[in-house]
Backbone:
């Protein structure tokens, strides 16, 4: 702790960084603002939310009933390059290792036990990280979508600083990293639609509909972003946290088409409809990114690792799977740590079902044969 401010709170932007923020077209009336579009303000923690928090049956369903089947990632798998040139490994929540055109990019890495400013309180992981951070090997870049604790994790950043990797972050987030010991030469700090080249890859910060803040006094002086990463042969998109908004179509038209899109589909609620997408909205965003063609693979993120919303633990996966199959979209739903290549066979086995707490309706229903899902046929 420095003075009254814990290290985990990071730092507020100052000096030239703050001057650059004030010049941003996305900074108005002293704060960063969201893209234009329909908006509904978040509801307060009213009686409905309180009842859900207190109801034991609801609380129980927000966590798995048995250990999550984390894939046994091996050093050999890490060492072998992807045959297609593009491989993704979902590590849980929004953390994804992307191996793209000979480079390795880690999105929103959170290896800490809790997404919280303190190690003794706050949402705790429901499964371990699939592979120790030190065993991931060389990283060409680490991408951060925004500064919330479930996306920007102090213990993880401090482990990565010494690797010499470059951190690509939204405008203002560099103040946190600077306080945590990341030198300026290892940072690329971008406003929306700004681009930088790192290790031969092109990184572009693109709009998202969310908010920011780590400390008690939330100044809204750090930007949130989705990200486009373009290599010599492939393009990928990571949504970060966002509500649905019309800008996905613009992102797809300007920077697509994408071979894979990592899109937030969990931690949604009617109490905060504009800052997180439902699974159906996530699929709609995926369609918008490809001008309605559903081109590329959809990797659902922001679910399964931390209990951050009132919905049942497995519900984001179930709803995403149902919506994707109905629409004919190519969707990948791997267990944490299982690598896959978006151009190949996509993991679709509903691994979460055996470890989820059954719903009351499922408990009352007669037993039926397990659902058989064919390999990816949507293409």
Residues:
């Amino acid at each position: 702790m420095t003075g009254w401010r814990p290290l985990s709170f990071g730092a507020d932007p100052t000096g030239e960084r703050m001057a650059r923020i004030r010049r941003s077209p996305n900074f108005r009336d002293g704060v960063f603002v969201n893209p234009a579009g329909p908006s509904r303000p978040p509801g307060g923690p009213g009686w409905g939310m309180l009842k859900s928090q207190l109801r034991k049956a609801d609380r129980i369903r927000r966590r798995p009933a048995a250990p999550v089947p984390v894939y046994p990632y091996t050093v050999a798998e890490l060492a072998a390059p992807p045959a297609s040139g593009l491989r993704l490994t979902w590590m849980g929540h929004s953390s994804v290792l992307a191996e793209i055109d000979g480079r390795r990019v880690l999105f929103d890495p959170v290896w800490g036990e809790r997404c919280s400013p303190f190690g003794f309180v706050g949402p705790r992981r429901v499964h371990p990280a699939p592979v120790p951070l030190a065993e991931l090997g060389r990283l060409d870049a680490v991408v951060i979508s925004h500064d919330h604790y479930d996306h920007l994790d102090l213990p993880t950043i401090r482990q990565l600083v010494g690797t010499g990797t470059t951190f690509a972050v939204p405008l203002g987030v560099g103040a946190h990293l600077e306080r945590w010991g990341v030198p300026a030469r290892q940072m690329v700090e971008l406003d929306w639609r700004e681009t930088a080249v790192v290790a031969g890859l092109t990184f572009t910060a693109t709009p998202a509909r969310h908010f920011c803040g780590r400390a008690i006094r939330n100044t809204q002086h750090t930007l949130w972003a989705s990200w486009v990463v373009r290599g010599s042969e492939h393009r990928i998109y990571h949504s970060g946290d966002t509500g649905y908004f019309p800008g996905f179509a613009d992102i797809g038209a300007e920077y697509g088409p994408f071979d894979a899109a990592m899109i937030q589909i969990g931690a949604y609620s009617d109490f905060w409809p504009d800052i997180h997408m439902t699974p159906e909205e996530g699929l709609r965003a995926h369609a918008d990114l490809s001008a309605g063609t559903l081109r590329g693979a959809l990797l659902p993120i922001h679910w399964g690792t931390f209990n951050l919303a009132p919905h049942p633990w497995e519900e984001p996966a179930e709803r995403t799977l149902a919506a994707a199959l109905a629409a004919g979209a190519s969707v990948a739903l791997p267990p944490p740590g299982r690598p896959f290549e978006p151009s190949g066979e996509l993991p679709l086995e509903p691994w979460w079902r055996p470890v989820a707490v059954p719903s009351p309706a499922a408990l009352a229903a007669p037993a039926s044969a397990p659902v058989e899902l064919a390999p990816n046929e949507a293409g």
Observations:
- The first helix runs from residue 15 to 23.
- Confidence is low (pLDDT under 50) at residues 41-47, 363-379.
- The two ends are 52 Å apart (CA to CA).
